Amino acid sequence: MTSLRHGCPAALAALASVVALTACDDSSGPPPATPYRSYTAAQQGGQPQPGQAVAPQAQAANAGPGPIGALAVGNNVQQSTMTTTSTTPLLGPLMGTQMWQQETSAVLNEQRSNLSPENQARVKDIPFVVDNKPNEINAYAGCDTKGQPFIVGTQGILEAIDAISQTVATDDLYGTQTYAAYTAQVMPGLAHDKNARAALPLNIIPLQYLAQPARISHAHELFDEIVAFTFGHEMAHHYLGHTGCAHGQPIPLMNAGALNGLLTVAPAFTQPLELAADNQGTLNTLDSGRARASRGQYRWTERGASLLLDFFGKLERSSGLATLNPVTYVQTHPPAQQRIFWVQTAANTWRLTHPG
Fold it and tell me: pLDDT tens, 246-266?
């Protein structure tokens, strides 16, 4: 359960009701994606399949939800311009739970640095802990039995984020449809089998692209962008006061062994609180993205949120929103399409006040 939300004004609750009524169906499929980074042909590598273009800005029909930096509401899609170039150093691979945990902690530290001083103080030492449950896809914030705040991601959700980032990166660069192939393969099991996993199957990424440095680097970029929203949302629960235990106090180290029973003290949030955390997580990610762009780094946008929520939207449709859905995240959050609309609205509003 992505947890905690903050006390929101009555206007937010009213707007949440409007969002629930106006969120659109995505049956038409996601719009094409355009990567920020302009990779050279040598960096991209690999050989195109017959009839397949290998362009730095490949337009894949099923490359994942929304262009990078695009504002997609209904049929209106606004493409953003690229903000980094092939001269930016390529990033290395992220492999395995330990590296994912370290990377997520680093992303959260970057997100914290772009909060207001007051909110930074509230969440400065809150740890990110991995719950070693590969069959559970979940993220949540809460308080332990001693009243100390925490942010948790299960191994399952990190496996899902890795798979999304790897497939979408491949589609962005090579015009493939590996994200569509991945979700089609794993969704039936995830929706109905509590022992299923979201990890990337071995047969999804074409071998000629698997080890290409540009693909690996872009997957790293997307992993960070998805994580920024996913756990920025959880961190927002704390500084918005939804958990009631984040006061900037010193926090002792926590490990997965300390997680037993924590779900009983991680509250379930109402939809307005969840949407408030989505809003703040989006704004925090966009603020961090602007700071990154000023340093010549890959710019985070709301696309990371759209990618995550597209994944959960597919899972919702595959499961029929069953009450006993084995994926806890689906049970504890508002419908994905409603959240996508909310995130896009927050991003549009942010851009009105942050031109350029």
Answer: 887 766 555 444 554 454 344
